[in-house]
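Might I ask for a little of your time on a matter of protein folding? Here, with my thanks, is the record as I have it:
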Amino acid sequence: MIKINSANMHYRELNEIIKNSIGNVRIVNCIGQKYIASGLSDRKIVIDGVPGNALGCYLDGAEITVNGNVQDAVGDTMNAGKIVVHGGAGDVLGYAMRGGKIFVRDNSGYRTGIHMKAYKEKKPVIVIGGKAGDFLGEYMAGGIIIILNLYDSNVDLGQFTGVGMHGGKIYIRELVTPKYVSPQISVSSAQGENELEEIVPYLKEFCTLFDVDIKKLLESKYTVLYPNASNPYRQMYTHN
């Protein structure tokens, strides 16, 4: 694994080194450099520190692990691969994401998963260990978002969750009665491995990554949000 000390390094220089390297990369002393691993498809990258905006944008198969927090627009228009964050995430996580997986141990900011979409075999997935901010899943057109609420007993939706949603599903652990849901969204409940079959592999992967007890997650109740049959947007967009 190639080790890069990115302290005081301009983001263009850092990204050029990554692009031209052969094999896996470890970046240490990362302080806000943006566009790291943009479009990469064939390697693993470990980051110690806090990368800047648009980490893993257009990612096409590479795997990124961040030992710290991340800023805004992580996984922007991501096509394939995996991003693992051992900390929290900023706003617009997974914007227009169309494939691959993002796992965040802690919380994420506003507009997580907006404009996510799925097509044929591609189904993007975002798993958040804590909470997400307002506008979660706004204009979502496909894929899966899972909010686990592991760290706060006050469980509720942020404002404007799922507004304009016309595809995909949002699973929210321990949420019983949402205070506000758009009339274009249906709400159901799920519990146990049979009803959670669709998301069990992602729950198990999250637990392995962050040392969480899978039994706790499988014994919990989940509220599921998805577009209802009368949603006028469903015929206008590609959706799963």
About this structure: The first strand starts at residue 2 and ends at 5. The mean pLDDT is 91. Helices lie at 11-20, 192-195, 200-210, 214-218. The CA atoms of residues 99 and 124 lie 4 Å apart.
